[in-house]
Amino acid sequence: MRDPVAWTNVIQVAKTVLAAVLAWVVAVDVFGLPQPFLAPWAALLVVHATVYRSFSRGLQQVAATVLGVLLAWGTGQVLGLDPVALAVMLLVGLLVGLVRGLRAEGTAVAATALIVLTTGYSSEEFLLLGRLFDTGIGVAIGLVVNALMWPPLHDQAAARAIDGIDDQVGELLREIAAGVGPGCGDSDVEAWIERTRELDEEIDRAWGLVRQARESGRLNPRRESWAVRRPGGFGELLDRLEQSLSEIRSMVRTLDHSIADVQEWDPGFRTRWVGLLDEAGAAIVSPDSSRIAEVRHRLMELTTDFSTEDLPARHWPEYGGLILNLRNIVTSMDQVAAATPITPSRLQQRRSVRG
Known about the structure:
Layout: H1 4-30, H2 38-46, H3 51-78, H4 83-96, H5 106-118, H6 125-148, H7 155-179, H8 186-216, H9 225-228, H10 234-260, H11 267-285, H12 289-307, H13 316-339, H14 345-354
Helix pairs in contact: 1-2, 1-6, 2-6, 3-4, 3-5, 3-6, 4-5, 7-8, 7-10, 7-11, 8-10, 10-13, 11-12, 11-13, 12-13
């Protein structure tokens, strides 16, 4: 009940339903149009997650409906209504969707033409004009409802997605620390690498939410929309998360080579490095930038201490690689931890004003 992202989704669904119903009521009761099915249809298609997308797709929807109606009319006049006519009309309608600027509306062109032709309106020019009027009503009401009734801002969804990823990065580090040992095998390594790939996909989705957040501020009449067009820091945090996952993959590959070569680690190095890996994961899960900085400092001590040890040269490629990977991870995650919990800039400004 207190989840703002969930409420944004619920409000958006309610607005879509309201826009479709209003479009039908206005078309029937205000303008007296007979069977204005394209009015709620257009309203449903126009109410999008952002006001900007509603306007841009609204124009495309109008163009798609006009093309669909004209295509149905031309098909009815030339070919009539039979299976061949349907096939030709649908083929042309879908090919229109390949034209730049209408690629998202190819199905809408074909579907509109199909409805108009099969319901018998294609042979009556007056009714065809009515169908275009239906569409205009639906598009207009959809735009007004989405723009004036709590127009959505999606920066909180982007912040939440980023906030969840850094916790999973910390958990993965702790899982690797717990799994490194004599019983560690190829299946463990592959599972860790697969987990980094899954987190990469989550980062891709987070990037999509960041782009949507920026778009949600465009043409949005809400006073805070200017701050959403530039959700400061989100891109930098995602870059750091991507770098961390790349370093984790490299670290796991180094562990895999060590296992394959049956190389026995120095017990002192293993204990200290694994302990730092687990500590780094814990500091990321319960975000604490000072603990992360301490891990980086202790890594430097580890490097200094073992650089003076008389260790076999064959160990140092693994040791150096693991130390470098972990250092890069904590360096990347330091600012992420400092920014956690991730809060959109407009909410930070609102809280500072209240304070």
